[in-house]
Each structure stands twice: as structure tokens, then as C-alpha cells.
Design goal:
The structure is a homodimer of 405-residue chains. Chain A has 405 residues and is of the alpha/beta class. Chain A has helices spanning 5-16, 24-35, 40-47, 51-63, 76-82, 132-149, 188-196, 205-216, 275-279, 282-292, 298-306, 310-334, 350-363, 388-398; strands spanning 38-39, 67-69, 87-90, 96-102, 106-113, 118-125, 157-164, 200-204, 225-230, 234-240, 243-244, 338-342, 378-381. In chain A, helix 3 (40-47) crosses helix 4 (51-63). The longest helix of chain A has 25 residues, at 310-334. Chain A starts with a helix and ends in a 7-residue tail after the last helix. At the A-B interface, strand 10 and helix 12 of A face strand 10 and helix 12 of B.
Chain lengths: 405, 405
């Protein structure tokens, strides 16, 4: 069948819009956009639609070229043996998405299509403490370049997902407790929306990481999990029944600012004795840099640990002990089947994970030793440590956290 | 239309069974059982079924006598003005449920029908440290008495919901960290199921409180909230999108055993420095009893505080400061729109709530003063402080947390 991409784009956007989202076709499109490829039976289960309703709508969507069979049916013989269900997938020509992570000194940009294929990844260096206007301009240029280089039409852009290292309010404003002070109070949805003339979806860094791990990484097929990030800061994200718990004001998952010691030292957030002060690696890097007489980055410290540097290993182990207390707090509150550890420090593997798991077991209420194997929380590293945040920003669009215009 | 209760009961049970739960009728029955009364439009929104599918199924269910119009349509004139949607409700004759709370020295028992009307409440005194067999026998006698006194047929019993003051594993076993040592490791589902010859559903005390507040109390219509209980122990429950987060092993909401001080005093749970040690009222009661030279119960202490006793007020205020830290931890992790405070200490009203709110504001990451009014978490007392736990145990059956046989 011939695909008519122009028509497909328009049809897809209208099906992703909130007005038409409640039709069976709209729900199927949204579910495929979120999950990648699914069988008709899986679609029925996830959407709650009757099987017959799904069949009818899928047939219409197939005819319009919006969805494809991801795996063409095998020969009659092999079908008779294994009876593999046909997986459905959105037509990659039906639309593209951009994700951008506002990192400390660069923009990390990724482009993907609605079939979940990543088309391009780019890093755009920026001065430290860059502001919103510069970021919007550089992002606009970068998107134009990606689309030109890959022969894509900008009319196919469904939206831009933005990840920031701070809680974000439901209307798209960065809360004051931001890592990048220039951004505090900025409404990124309005500002980027005006500059890029497209729909902007925004969430914080940890929520984006969790979305990426759910779509492409270590949490595929697992709709209930917690992600815990150990970086220069501490973050977390909570997925319950396939949805991120963003919270009323965007403050969900802010485990780093749990006050462990109300008489402790002042934190950048305005509270005292926060988990982040000792569980994150900011403080450890100062100590390591002082010892070696030169500034040492978190990635360099991880490399040193992996090469056997006893000081770096000890600092990671110390952070892991406190981080494990934070993970145990999440464990006591949510008792999830899976906890993913992400962030730069997770790249050290067992150097972080072993003491962190020991600390978790010590501080959690339900001890692994008393639970049946299937009732034990699994703590494993994320699978996308290099680029989870920017991929998750793409995922914001694919999951249409908000409205696609 | 004449109702045929015998047939209705059988039909209802079959629609509540997991095998048939995925038909439109099954989903509608489950939703009405959980929510009480709903319009057809609300049913469509909650179940995800198409409006036309709901209409067809509702017509069938009406004909079979399983569901009723809760509010008969008004005159043509008033309909034309306000157009109130007809609310649908399960036929109260279609089935009944029992809830029981295994309290420290008594069984609290309630009976309700599937239309959410409470039929009877009873307290059965038992010796301290009573065991499972005695409880099952007394409960069996009590149920027989309630059904006889109210002219109900025991064949209409859909199931018994059980609330225990400890985390419960998915298979219905009480975890070792129980308040009542006689119950540790007991599989209540098997034991009560055999004794009572009906379906047993079980959850911990705080989850039951939250279910009751959602069905009948201060969280009606609010599908995302946290309940925090201040008693001789500390508990909490988390509802996300209308479902309780029970956790993989039943450990969800165990905020009381978050270790605030890993070098602190040993807790009954085997950890050190748990929130519960200072936020609950167990320790305060020892101090108050010592001061007055006689044992003082938590209810007596609340009464003293309400009559102006400075010592009792101070102890509640001290507990509130620590409890507020716990509530802030839940706030930082979940950022819910609503936090209900329940438990015996909540009966002291502002004596507990005012310092607790102050402590929450101090320790939370997102400060109310910086948020728009609609983005602020509301902290209010529960509405069912006298009997939330036992009503929630009834609610376990109405919400069919598990399977109804």
C-alpha cells in the first residue's frame, strides 16, 4: 500500500490532540506512541477497549497508513507452530519528535520518529550559566540542521520534549530550587513554544530517565518501578501502573531533599541535612580534588575507581551507604518490584551497587532474607546511563505528557 | 420491576469473578462496587469503555435487577433546568460484605451491602494477645448473629475483608514485624477462609483507612492522596489514580519505619532510629503515665489535651513535629494534592494539626509560600476517625482487592 505521509502527519496530530483522544483510534495511537510496538491483544488490555473495537479501529488505521505491522507474518508453516501475534507499530513517516536536556554546559539533543527509532543525537556546547534565550536559539538551529541532514520535513515535528535539572510546575515553569539559577521561574513551555513554534513538553531529569528506561532500557515491560539517580545531585522518579508520579506541583520524586538531620548543614534548597548533601557526589569531588590538587569531574572519579584508585572507591562507597538509606526510604514507602540506579556514579557498577544494596538491606523494613525470592525488590543499574535523560525527553513527546498541537 | 434476589446474587458473584471481569458488564459492576453510585458518563470515563457499550450493558444489568437508578428522575421541568444525570447503583439485595479489624484487644466488625450502605457495626472484646483460631470462631459467631438480626441470607455474603496492624504479603500472610506477635507468619486468607467458608481479602490498617476515606470520607472524589496515621504506631497509605500502592510484598506505606537516625535507639522492627519511635504516641504515653502515676490511654491523653492539660498538649505537639517530618518525606516523594491525618491523635484536631503543618512546611522541599494556592498540598484530618479501619475492611471486598469467589 502506498503511504501518503502528508495526510498521515495531519491524521496523527489530530489523533494525538486531546479533543479526539477519547475515540478508540485516538487511544490506540497514543498507546502505540507510548509503547512502541504491541499486539492487538496487548492494545486491548492496556486501553481497556473491547477486542472487536480494537480490530475495527486497527483495520482503519492500517488502511490510512498510520500503523504498520512491525513484523511481517512469517510463512504459513511457522505461524502454525508458534502463532506469533502480529506486532503493530506507528508508521515512522507519520511524525518525529525532538528531545533536549538542558545540561550544565551544553544542550543534549536527540531526534526520533514515532516508531521509537532514534534518528540523531547531538551535543551543543554552551557557556556555563547560559540563559533561556540563547538555549532556544541554539536549539532552533540544531533542529533545523538535524532535519536537513536527515532529509526530514519540519512539518512532521510533533513536539519538543525538554528535560531540566529541577522540579517543574504543571504549567511548565522551573521551580526556584533549580540547579541553573538563570532558569528559576522561567516558563519553558511559553518561551520555547514561541521560539520553536511547536508543542513543548517538559519534565525534570529523573522523570525523563525513568521514561527512557521504560521505553528502551532496563524497565521495559515493568510498569511499577523507582529510578534513583546518583550524580552531583540526587534525584528519583516513580512509575506507578505505567504513569510517572509527577505530583501536584511537579515535586514528585524529590528524594534528594529529604531532611535526614534537621540540625544538619544548610542545603542549596533551603532545608538542613538533606540526603543529597552526603549521598550525592558533589561533596566527594571536592575532597578528591583537594587530595589530588586538581579539579576532578564525576566521570574522571568513576574512571579512577574503575582503575582501582582506593580513594575514589572509598568515596563512592561512602556515598553508596547514604544513597542506600535514601533508596530504603523509597523502598519502605513504595515497596516496588524494581529499583534502577542511574546517574554518572552508576557507571562504576559494583563499586556503587554492592555497598548500596547492603545499605538498603540494612535500612529497609522488609529484609530480603525474610522474603520469598519473588517478593524481593531488585536493585539493578539502568541500561541507558550514557543518554537516558535526553532519550526520556524524546519520550515525553511520545508519551504526550500534555497535549500535542 | 420485580427483583429476584437469588438470581441477582449469583449473577453478581459471577460478574465479580476474575474469569468474567473483562466483559463490559463485569467492569461496570466492579466499578459500581468500588465507587458506590455513578452516572453512565462517569462509568465510561473510569472504565475506558465507549459510551455506547456502557449504555447497552447498563440496560441489560437494569433488566436483570443487578443495578438500580439511585436517584429517580425528577419531574420533566426540573430535568430541563438542571439536567441531573441519573446515578446508577448496585441493587443492595445483590450482596453483602463483612469487614473486620483485628484490634489489640477486640474484633471490630461491620457489615454493608453492595450499594455501600452500612448495615451493622459490632465490637467483640477479646483477651490481649488473642490468637487466630479464637478470632476466627468469634468472627464466625458474630457474622451469624448480624445476619440473623438483620434478616439477611448468608448466601448473599460476597466476602470478608480483614484489616491487620502489620504489613501483609500478597498471599495473605502477616509479616513478622507485627504488632500482635501471635499473628506473625499466619496466613489469614487460608485460616479465615476455611473457618468462614467465604472469600477473604486482607490488607493493613492504614490501607483500609485510606479505602474508607476514599469511599465514604474526606477523600471522596480524590484518586490521588496520602493518608498518614498517628497512633501508638505510625502508618501511611498511598493512593495513586484510585489504586492503593500496596507494594510488591505488601510493604507499601511503611513510613513509620524510615530510619531517621541510623545510630538511634533500636525499634521493634529491628532497625534503629525509626520515625515511629518519636512521631507515634507510644513513648509519650509512658511519659504522661509516669507523671500522673497511672496508666493513661491514647484516647484519655487526647481528652486531657482537649480539656487544656498543658502536658498532654505539649506531648502531642512534640509528636506532631516529628510526624510532620514524616509527612514531609511523603510530600517530597509523592507531592500529593491531599494528605489526610488519621489515627487516635488526629481526634485532638488543631492541637496535632497546627504544629504538624508547621513542621511539614519547614521540612518539605516545595514551600507553600512559593506555590500558587492550587499547587499547595492540603493537610486535613480524616472524616472517619472513629471507624475508618473497619469500614475500609468492608471496602476491601467492595473494591475486590483480589478475587471474589
Amino acid at each position: 500500500m502506498e503511504v501518503k505521509p502528508q495526510m498521515t502527519e495531519g491524521s496523527l496530530k489530530s489523533l494525538l490532540k486531546s479533543e479526539s483522544a477519547d475515540t478508540p483510534s485516538g487511544r490506540i495511537i497514543r498507546t502505540l506512541s507510548e509503547r512502541g510496538s504491541l499486539s492487538a491483544a496487548q492494545i486491548a488490555r492496556i486501553t481497556g477497549l473491547a477486542r472487536s473495537t480494537v480490530s475495527t479501529a486497527v483495520a482503519d488505521l492500517r488502511r490510512s497508513g498510520l500503523i504498520f505491522d512491525a513484523d511481517p507474518p512469517e510463512s504459513a508453516e511457522s505461524r502454525a507452530i508458534g502463532r506469533p501475534a502480529t506486532a503493530l507499530r506507528l508508521n515512522p513517516e507519520a511524525g518525529t519528535c525532538i528531545g533536549v536536556h538542558l545540561a550544565i554546559d551544553e544542550l543534549r539533543v536527540a531526534a526520533a520518529d514515532v516508531s521509537h527509532s532514534v534518528i540523531s543525537e547531538q551535543n551543543i556546547p554552551l557557556p556555563l550559566d547560559y540563559g533561556p534565550d540563547l538555549a532556544a536559539q541554539r536549539l532552533k538551529d540544531c533542529i533545523a540542521r538535524i532535519y536537513a541532514e536527515n532529509g526530514l520535513r519540519q512539518s512532521g515535528l510533533l513536539g519538543v520534549g525538554v528535560s531540566v535539572s529541577a522540579p517543574v510546575s504543571p504549567d511548565g515553569s522551573v521551580h526556584r530550587s533549580a540547579i541553573v539559577p538563570n532558569w528559576a521561574g522561567v516558563n519553558v513551555v511559553s518561551l520555547f513554544g514561541a521560539a520553536l513554534e511547536t508543542t513543548i513538553l517538559i519534565d525534570n531529569e529523573s522523570n525523563c530517565s525513568a521514561i527512557a528506561e521504560h521505553m528502551w532500557g532496563a524497565a521495559q515491560g515493568q510498569d511499577n518501578f523507582v529510578l534513583f539517580t546518583v550524580n552531583n545531585g540526587i534525584g528519583s522518579a516513580i512509575m506507578v501502573d505505567g504513569r510517572i508520579v509527577t505530583g501536584l506541583a511537579g515535586g514528585g520524586g524529590e528524594v534528594g531533599h529529604i531532611s535526614l538531620d534537621p540540625e544538619g548543614e544548610l542545603c542549596r534548597c533551603g532545608n538542613r541535612g538533606c540526603l543529597e548533601l552526603r549521598a550525592s557526589f558533589g561533596w566527594a569531588l571536592l575532597e578528591l580534588s583537594r587530595l589530588h590538587g586538581r579539579p576532578i569531574s564525576i566521570d574522571a572519579a568513576v574512571a579512577m575507581a574503575l582503575h582501582g584508585d582506593a580513594g575514589a572507591i572509598r568515596l563512592i562507597s561512602d556515598a553508596a551507604e547514604v544513597a542506600g538509606r535514601g533508596v530504603a526510604i523509597l523502598g519502605n514507602i513504595l515497596n516496588p518490584p524494581l529499583i534502577l540506579i542511574s546517574g554518572a556514579l552508576a557507571k562504576s557498577g559494583a563499586i556503587l551497587l554492592d555497598p548500596l544494596r547492603t545499605s538498603f538491606e540494612k535500612h529497609a523494613l522488609l529484609k530480603s532474607r525474610e522474603l520469598k525470592p519473588e517478593d524481593r525488590t531488585r536493585i539493578i543499574p539502568g541500561a541507558l546511563l550514557a543518554n537516558d535523560v535526553v532519550l526520556g525527553a524524546v519520550g515525553l513527546v511520545l508519551r504526550h505528557h500534555g497535549r500535542i498541537g
